[in-house]
Amino acid sequence: MCILLSSDAEAALRDAHRxxxxxxxxxxxxxxxxxxxxxxxxxxxxxxxxxxTGSTPPRLRLRFAxxxxxxxxxxxxxxxxxxxxxxxxEVAGARLTRRCLERMEVDxxxxxxxxxxxGLSGRFHGYRDGWTDAAVRxxxxxxxxxxxxxxxLARYDxxxxxxxxxxxxxxxxxxxxxRIRTLARExxxxxxxxxxxxxxxxxxLGIGSGPEVGQALALLxxxxxxxxxxxCERLLRDWWDAKP
Length: 244
Known about the structure:
64% of the residues lie in helices and 3% in strands. The protein has helices at residues 9-18, 21-25, 27-30, 45-55, 60-68, 73-76, 89-103, 108-120, 133-143, 147-156, 163-192, 198-205, 211-221, 229-242, and strands at residues 77-80, 83-86. The protein has a two-stranded antiparallel ribbon. It has 14 helices and two strands. The termini are far apart. The longest helix is centred in the last third of the chain and has 30 residues, at 163-192. The chain has three domains: 1-121, no CATH class; 131-192, no CATH class; 194-242.
């Protein structure tokens, strides 16, 4: 843990790998070292992992997730016509992460949270395909209290040397975070808004526009969220019948 939270975690992890410490205690991470064989057809996963881990904010849960986010790639690697794929490596990675952290006797709650982050770590990659509001809500709902770490993991899971690609990724993460906040505010307002609007109040009570409509809406708003249409209708009729 001291290695993960050090000021230069990337260098510390490289030293731990060279010394054999990682191979002894975290062989699953050591397996990410696929050498320089060009037939692998993809980036150096271990180097990428160390860079991502070292670049993330020094929060233990996030650093653990960064260290393990690609741990499922060696067991899911498939080469076909000189194209390499790692289908569902996040699912395999979540299982391996849980196994590793349990072996290390890491706090059970932290273990579950890190494994969950690893399992969700690939979800952001489809964002540029165009997510609906429902997809954004689902992403935020599935992340729950891990949302900040998940967004940071998506933001720092980029070790390309192309500045444009890095700026584009950061812009995408910022946009997603802003959409999540906007939708959360809209959902809160929707829950707080009465199930019956002004026009429905006039239709139900058989009245025209006037101060009574405002009084009726104020009454409904005072009941708080969770009041359904039928409950609002019953409350309105009882209120109206009791008026002089």
